[in-house]
Model the fold of this input.
Amino acid sequence: MLQIHRPTVSKAIQQIEHDLGVKLIHRTTRKLSVTAEGDEFYHHARHVLAEVNDMMASFSPFLPPRGRLRLDVPLALAHTVLIPNLKHFQTLYPDIEVVLVSSDRKTDLITEGVDCLVRLGVLQDSSFISRRIGYIRMVTCAAPSYLQQHGRPETLADLEQHRAVNFFNVHSRDVMEWTFIEGGSIVSRRLVNSILVDNSDILLSCGLAGLGIIQATFDALAPHIASGALEEVLPQYPSVSKPVSVMYPDRRYLSPKVRVFIDWFSNVLAKQIS
Done:
């Protein structure tokens, strides 16, 4: 805590409001609330302070990386890759406090204060810096109950007669294409929807319930394949591995805590795919 008295803070805010010519805080006898301009000013100020901290840290190469590292990671990767290995990262960098947000939705790095965003698949154009750090194996599966009812596809053409649990982007409404390797070439297929989902946990649950064929990360489905709850289909047409990328704000000085996480996670992914 800064241990600054409330009148001093109030006077400082009033001075900023005077200099800007806008009201940052609504004041009543009962409460204070931030205005839209105040919220925007806060986020810009936090971004500037983060850049200053990153710059200072980049000129201190002999100090170990430290501070709070806010990550946003897809659910499937968080469950099966990041969390099982995170203890190793904490052992290497005990002064970094990890704040893990796990989602499959679109995230605004600046307004949500995210230091590093990890995403699967081909990234859309973005004003942020992106870097591909590896690949994750995919697999196509279905529950025994689905196969008993609808039969087992033997060729890619057979997929036209089947239904799928498809993943879609909640913002763009784009439905994920399924990709396979056939005769050394990559081919795409769009399957008829049994149900559309925007969450990898829900996609898995739908697959286990026999609602349709699913294509997801191998690490997420492997335990269910081993238990017999899911069966791999079309193993002769391997699913194409998906790229894994990281995104971070366009800052000149990349924070050491972000840099070491990216390097570490790249090594983790390399071991997963090998």
The chain has seven helices and 14 strands. The mean pLDDT is 84.
